[in-house]
Amino acid sequence: MKKQIFAVCDLEAEYARNFMEYLNRKNNLPFEVQAFTSVQSLIAYAKETHVELLLISADAMCDEVRELDISKTVILTEGTRPEELDTYAEVYKYQSSAEIVREVMACYGEEKTVFPMQNPALKRKTELFGVYSPLGRCLKTSFAWTLGQILSEERSVLLISLEEYSGLEELMQKKFSCTLSDLLYYVRQKNPGVILKLNSMVQSVGQLDFVPPVQSPEDIRGTSWKDWEYLLQELILHGTYEVVVIDMGNGIEELFQMLDLCKFIYMPICVDPVSKSKIRQFENLLNARDYSEVSEKTVKMKLPFCTVESVSADYPQSLVWSTLGDYVRELLGKELSYEQ
């Protein structure tokens, strides 16, 4: 069973080509994407193949397109549109491709409760990579961002921060209209459109997608284990990512159970006496609660000092080419050779 079709039709050939190139790089989309630069070719295709979602420029929309059996149509506008198109959802054409995709997914999700997905038997397995340490000030979050970006060079990767205070808006000097808090609201309602909601809010750093973190620590502390479990199950069963990197803090209910779901747990450590004592206490607690397997799949790391010249909005990207980035590439290389 193939993915459902997301068709894009714009009469401006260069725009359509550039947008298509962006969509082809986004290998986490739950649709097969088809681009058209003429209405006739779109109509011919749609008469033979069902189009689930259509993004079409206002000047290409016509009566023949209206008559096609298309589940959801969104108009690509240049700021204004004819009155006869008022019944359709719209997105503004001249903004970033990432923002267009988020808005289109949000429009699609307003009327859909089930995310289009290929047969589960054909779906690529989603792996959870946990990043956690009982220590503070050990470069845990910087490592998570570096790991996610380097993995995303070859795989589709989502980063989720479960830190109570991520500082990401301040670090990136950017306000996010939707955050993990909004997604958790949907999760608590057991809304079947959770993955649709996620795809309408994800942001990107290079090829890495991420969910903007919560702004209030209560949103982490107040989320029950059954809700975290539901979110992770949705990502594994219905999501489109090959890897989900989870940057974990200590505010999560049932932390050990979440760690247990991960294929790997990456644990930055320090070697001073106090840090060693905290690590031993954590490991003793794991054994006492019968989570010894968590220790077995934990990769302990004494991370190198991160030589990023200055902290700015580009900090996450700069990590990839820092000493920390070199360390992560070497670490992943060792693990890949070990698995083979």
Provide keyphrases for this structure.
single chain, 340 residues, seven-stranded mixed sheet, five-stranded parallel sheet, 19% strand, elongated
Describe this structure in words.
By secondary structure, the protein is of the alpha/beta class. 41% of the residues lie in helices and 19% in strands. It has a seven-stranded mixed sheet. Helix 1 links the parallel strand 1 and strand 2. Helix 5 crosses helix 15. The radius of gyration is 22 Å and the shape is elongated.
Q: Structural class of the secondary elements?
A: alpha/beta
Please count the beta strands (DSSP E, at least 2 residues each): 12
Q: Beta-strand percentage?
A: 15-25%
Q: Order of SSEs, N→C?
A: EHEHEHEEHEHEHHHEEHHEHEHHEHH
Low-confidence regions? none
Principal-axes geometry comes out as elongated
List the helices and strands and how they pair.
Layout: E1 4-9, H1 13-25, E2 31-36, H2 39-48, E3 51-57, H3 63-66, E4 70-77, E5 89-92, H4 97-109, E6 127-131, H5 140-151, E7 157-162, H6 168-172, H7 180-188, H8 194-199, E8 203-205, E9 208-211, H9 218-221, H10 225-238, E10 243-248, H11 255-260, E11 264-268, H12 273-288, H13 292-296, E12 298-301, H14 315-319, H15 323-339
Parallel strand pairs: 1-2, 1-3, 3-4, 4-5, 6-10, 6-11, 7-9, 7-10, 11-12
Antiparallel strand pairs: 8-9
Helix pairs in contact: 5-15
